[in-house]
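PROTOCOL LOG
Step 1. Enter all chains and additional molecules of the complex.
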Amino acid sequence: MQTLLAIETSCDETAVAILRGNELLASEVASQAEHEAYGGVVPEVASRNHLLHAPRLLESAVKKAAIGLNEVDAFAATAGPGLASSLMIGASIAKGLALGFSKPYLAINHLEGHLLSPFFAGNFAIEPNVSLVVSGGHTLLVEVRALGHYSILGRTVDDAAGEAFDKVAKMLGLDYPGGPEIERCALLGDATRFGFPRSMLDSGDHNFSFSGLKTAVRYQIAKLAAISDDIRNDLSASFQRAVVEVLVKKTMRAALDCGAKLVTVSGGVSCNRELRAQMNEACNRAGLKLLSAAPMLCTDNAAMIAFAASLRFEAGFASDLAEEIDPNLALA
Ligand code: KG4
Ligand code: ZN
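Step 2. Run joint prediction.
Step 3. Record the structure below.
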């Protein structure tokens, strides 16, 4: 049975995971709260923190997995997309380990990690599907034919869905990351109180846009004298309803266009329970199967990187130690 060790440092989460066969032996994640004070991720702060956290996480992952590093069959790291100086930390450590233990190195695309994460359950076999990847940095609709065979159907033309959640949360005086905060307020709010736009719902393509929605929320806030808890809850619920409706309707349309039988959903925003519930209902209505990533695999983690790496390793892939990280690494 093969054992993979993966490191994820593409943005502000440092993560290490160890996977043996289909069993996740360890999955360590350290988030960086420092960036909140700056209102966004500061690349140099992020990379210095990765350098601080990675050795500690590596040590605790090995301890939890109760294995020796010499038992690892291949070392993997996220090679992009992401922040260059952050990616370099994880990739350098994984390459150093591969070199030191004379084992293969695998450079993994972060988006492939998210994309395949719904299959990290059940029988672990990748089936053809139409996949919605919704995170803080990306909003993608992808046609997945098999491992490594992907076509991008659509993407956001401006803000990512998670970015919109984070920015609207900030306008409402809520903490970062904004997604879980908005979801918490939305549970208590009236989603029909504010009629926010459903951008690009009828654009005739599979692209998204969330910046107009964000601006509509900003104008609505400016019109209100003060934001009481009730108004914050109603704004959150109405904003969330608008995002979810667009994500669900456009995913269903893409699945229909591709003749897909299976829809998958992954990325940080897919933690959102309203999105999961609405997608489930829409798939049931259309007679489609739905696979959503487990909540612990939705936000950035190394388990999804280890899983993608194990599938690639099994299929005979390995990367050259000279392979560079690529901040704009394309999925297809
Ligand atoms: O996948 P992820 O950890 O990082 C990227 O690869 O970007 O996604 C983080 C994003 C953040 O924007 C966060 O606000 C959002 O996922 N998010 C959520 C929820 N939990 C996290 N958005 C909506 N509802 C949630 N429950
Ligand atoms: Zn991510």
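Step 4. Note key features.
Residues 110, 114, 135, 300 surround zinc ion (ligand 2) (CB under 6 Å).
The radius of gyration is 20 Å.
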